Amino acid sequence: METLILACIGLFVGLAGGLFGIGGGIVLIPALSEIFGPDQHKYQAASMVVGFFVTTPAAFQHFRAGAIDVGSVRRLLPIAAISVVVGVLCSEAPFFAGEGEAYLRLIFGTFLLYSAVVEGVKIVRRRFGGPMATKAAIEETTWSAAAMIAIPTGLVAGLLGVGGGIIAIPLQRRILGIDLRRAIGNSATIIIATALIGSFTKNYAYVMTEENGFAPLAIAAGVAPTAIIGSLIGSRLTHVVPVRALKGLFLIVLLIAAVRICYFAIQSLG
């Protein structure tokens, strides 16, 4: 039964990751917490592994569709790779150990709430014709522009065990002025590197500090196969169907997960 549950979660995680250019952690971690109980460090370690398997096939699909700006990615990748290691090290600080894990869950829940607000604002602006961040795309991404995008993306990815696409996509649109599909393609490519490096760093720390140190890898093994399938489907749908209705559903899921995680984290701290 647990294997079936993980497989179902993986399919949903993959669909969300492929459609929206995210690693899937903002779906996977709340789902695991809801079904198996809170264990933030373990789920974050598993999430980073799964993120790699979600974004790799998605990035391939985006590349085939011509939706990856190689010039931008070339500068975004190294900065994000360094930042994700810093983020993981921050998550392993003594402050977040033991009962302090509740603080990490509270930060994660707040991040989900932020993500829901960002998605909601985008939906409302499009529906009522409000202003969008429009700017002429620059021909070459400067290192300073890359840093403004990649540093927060990598730090959040490492600290919270998510892909960081929810940050990378709007920042690319605002700073680089690129279209949504290209921002999603770039984001998926960046997450491949941050997930690979972050998963190694986080899982190494988990093995060194926890008795059942390989538990995150067992979870990832149960989730990854169907997540790959979902990612292939989702990333293909990104280029052929309107995703506004799906974004609305995604927004509702984020809001529910954010409220529940914050509530239970505050209860633990109280």
Q: What order do the helices and strands come in, and which of them pair?
A:
Blueprint: H1 2-20, H2 25-36, H3 40-64, H4 70-91, H5 101-128, H6 143-160, H7 165-176, H8 180-209, H9 215-237, H10 244-269
Task: Give short descriptive properties of this protein.
about 270 residues; 10 helices; about 0% strand; mainly alpha; single chain
How would you characterize the overall build of this protein?
With 270 residues, this protein is mainly α. It has one domain. Helix content is 80%, strand content 0%. The chain contains ten helices and no strands. Helix 2 (25-36) crosses helix 10 (244-269) and helix 4 (70-91) packs parallel to helix 8.
In short:
This protein is an all-alpha fold and 270 residues long. It has one domain.
Number of domains: 1
Q: What proportion of the residues is helical, as a percent range?
A: over 70%
Radius of gyration: 17 Å
Query: What integer is the average pLDDT?
Result: 86
What is the terminal separation in angstroms? 34 Å
Structural class: mainly alpha
Low-confidence regions: 128-139
Strand content: under 5%
Shape: globular
- Strand element count: 0
Report the sheet with the most strands, covering strand number, pairing sense and barrel closure: none
- How are helices and strands ordered from N to C? HHHHHHHHHH
Number of helices: 10
